[in-house]
Write a structure and sequence with these properties.
Number of strands: 7
Strand content: 5-15%
Shape: globular
Helix content: 40-55%
Strand order of the largest sheet: 5-7-6
Radius of gyration: 33 Å
Largest sheet: 3 strands, antiparallel
Structural class: mainly alpha
Length: 633
């Protein structure tokens, strides 16, 4: 055997993925109220959902189906086989009655005895409330979990609320179709259709043959559609229509639209760049209104990006980091609007997550779930978005309010800690404070700094010229110039150099007379800053990945091109010379820091390729811990 073949390793096979139950099933079965509040969802394969055994058992009731699904969820863990499926299972009588009582009627033990007889052919033996009972799952329940197959989550609370026997059967069939076709929620996506001939639909709903379309619609389909519209939250049945060929009905078409997910645990998180995560983490808020960065990432995974093109197979890309922060800005503006009571749009009076209704939802569901629901509602029916695009001052006000809330929360927390320490010392539970002596260390003499470079004299603008920026004409020019930079911000490497050259020519042609006059008076400080954007390329912008370079280039466009027009459009440009110089210094500082970080990362990567990085002895342990035995380096 050669050396290469001996060193070649076979990669280990990954274990089959087994989906888990959503929600604490044990806590849900403590009471009927907890069961409806937790609403546990159990994974079921497509083969299980399309099995017709429950539909063809005429003695089973709708509550029996809900009880059967719950018993399977409680007793089946992992993959079942023909041998293990026949093992005896145990369940508490109280927990089983919780499921039977979730529909509104308090079930008695005798009703559980009858349900077990219909489900498992169990002898009608009396049961007491504090006891347990044994049952055996039928042999057809082998495909409960099939690793590697498509599946959907069945809401047990929804099954328990149904009152018609055809409702859970139609609910299971729709979930099976969604799982088999891999249909996922996307805002604005058109509804999909399920076409079924009447004999097939009658077989699904448990109607005995021969199938009469009128009786099928009256006794089976229409009641099931009504209950699904009332109780199911994951999707909605938009319409039910018949396809006729002459006078005969050949197909029944169900038009279904997916609803946005309401549970955060149903949306996966994804890996994002360190820069984006740090940007989300730094914008904290008061504890009552704080949104976790993981919630923003989950929101980005559940909404399609409007900047990135759709994938080759038609799927949408998730939100970019900048788009996640835009959604968070809209949340801060809506929150500031609700706390101040100053309505921005007519949706303040009608929106489900606006005004006092937003504050009530935060108190009831928490800030993370409310932020998730508010963002989906805003995407489905944009109301604040157009106003924010026109009034950039709203972002400044909401950001200032967020900082004030966060600072007030920190001050209150520090005050509470001081009061707790003071009370603990008064009760004798903490040592008294130690008096600090005076600092007797002599300070080192410092030499006076000698300025060797001459001070740069910047131009001074007159008050009359600065006042022209606050006029309606000046604000309009600032807004037009700001919109010129939008495509350069979204696609910096393609459009930033073109936009910089186009804006320079427009200043010379007099398309922005007020801004051009102010810029000429301050020796073209703005156009000289914009000229730096013509150098934007992948060789000029630092970053280890394309995504990092894209974010950094967009940041440069904001600093050098967008910030001054944004201030002008909001009437906040009071000292253009200082503002543009400050933006330029920020750009130079950020670029220098990014270049140094990139160099350090590349040096560390080369060191890892050559060998293990040396680690000093104190750095190998946390908080200076020293083991009794020295480890070899």
């Amino acid at each position: 055997m050669s050396t290469a073949s001996s060193l070649r390793r076979t990669p280990p096979r990954r274990a089959a993925f087994i989906p888990q139950v959503r929600g604490d099933l044990t806590a849900a079965l403590e009471s009927t109220e907890a069961f409806l509040d937790v609403a546990p969802s159990v994974p079921r394969s497509v083969a299980w959902l399309r099995d017709r055994t429950l539909a063809h058992a005429p003695r089973l009731t709708v509550r029996d189906i809900a009880l059967f699904e719950t018993l399977v969820a409680m007793s089946v863990v992992g993959v079942e086989t023909e041998d293990t499926i026949r093992a005896a299972r145990m369940c508490s009588v109280r927990k089983a009655l919780t499921v039977l009582s979730a529909g509104g009627h308090a079930a008695q033990p005798r009703e559980l005895v009858s349900a077990l007889e219909r489900l498992f052919d169990r002898k009608p033996e009396p049961l007491k409330l504090g006891c347990s009972f044994a049952f055996h799952l039928p042999a057809w329940a082998v495909p409960v979990q099939q690793p590697g197959t498509r599946y959907a989550h069945v809401d047990l609370a929804v099954l328990a609320r149904f009152r018609r026997r055809s409702s859970p059967l139609l609910y299971r069939e729709i979930l099976a179709h969604i799982a088999a076709e891999r249909i996922r929620y996307e805002p604005g996506a058109p509804p999909f259709e399920m076409r079924m001939p009447p004999p097939l639909l009658g077989d699904i709903l448990g109607m005995p043959a021969p199938v009469h379309v009128g009786q099928l619609r009256l006794r089976y389909l229409d009641p099931a559609v009504g209950e699904i519209r009332e109780h199911v939250r994951s999707f909605e049945i938009v319409s039910v229509a018949d396809v006729n060929q002459g006078r005969a009905v050949t197909e029944i078409v169900l038009t279904i639209r997916l609803r946005p997910p309401e549970r955060l645990d149903t949306v996966p998180t994804r890996l994002i760049s360190e820069f984006d995560f740090e940007s989300m983490s730094l914008r904290g808020d008061a504890p009552a209104y704080r949104v976790k960065p993981a919630t923003m990432v989950r929101l980005g995974s559940s909404l399609p990006s409007k900047v990135m093109r759709r994938k080759k197979r038609g799927g949408a890309h998730p939100l970019l980091g900048s788009e996640m922060l835009q959604r968070y800005d809209a949340w801060l503006i809506a929150l500031h609007e609700s706390l101040t009571g100053k309505a921005l749009t007519p949706g303040y009076e009608t929106g489900a997550y606006r005004g006092q209704r937003l504050l009530d939802a935060i108190e009831r569901d928490g800030s993370d779930a409310t932020f998730f629901a508010f963002s989906h509602a805003e995407v489905a029916d944009p109301d604040l978005g157009p106003v924010i695009a026109e009034q950039h001052l709203l972002r400044w006000e909401a950001e200032a309010a967020r900082k004030a809330r966060a600072k007030a929360a920190r001050v209150a927390a520090a005050r509470d800690r001081r009061v707790a320490v003071r009370n603990a010392r008064a009760d004798g539970m903490m040592a008294p404070p130690q008096k600090r002596g005076p600092n007797r260390e002599e300070s080192m003499p410092t030499a006076a700094l000698v300025q060797t470079t001459p001070e740069v004299v910047h131009p001074v603008l007159s008050a009359e010229l600065i006042a022209t920026l606050a006029t309606p004409e000046g604000k309009a020019e600032g807004l037009r110039l700001l919109r010129e930079w939008e495509i350069a911000f979204d696609f910096p490497f393609t459009h930033a150099p073109k936009a910089a050259e186009r804006i320079r020519l427009s200043f010379e042609r007099g398309e922005f007379p007020i801004l051009a006059a102010v810029d000429a008076a301050m020796e073209n400080y703005y156009l000289r800053s914009v000229k730096r954007l013509t150098k934007i390329s992948y060789d000029y912008v630092p970053g280890l990945t394309k995504a990092e370079q894209d974010e950094e280039a967009s940041h440069y466009v904001s600093l050098l091109g967008k910030w001054w027009p944004s201030r002008v459009s909001n009437g906040r440009s009071k000292d253009p010379v200082a503002e543009i110089l400050n933006d330029r210094e920020t750009y130079l500082r950020d670029r220098a820091r990014k270049i140094e970080a990139e160099k350090a990362a590349r040096i560390a990567a080369k060191a890892r390729l050559k060998g293990t990085l040396p680690m000093s002895e104190p750095e190998r342990y946390i908080n200076g811990y020293q083991p009794k035995r020295r480890m070899l380096a």
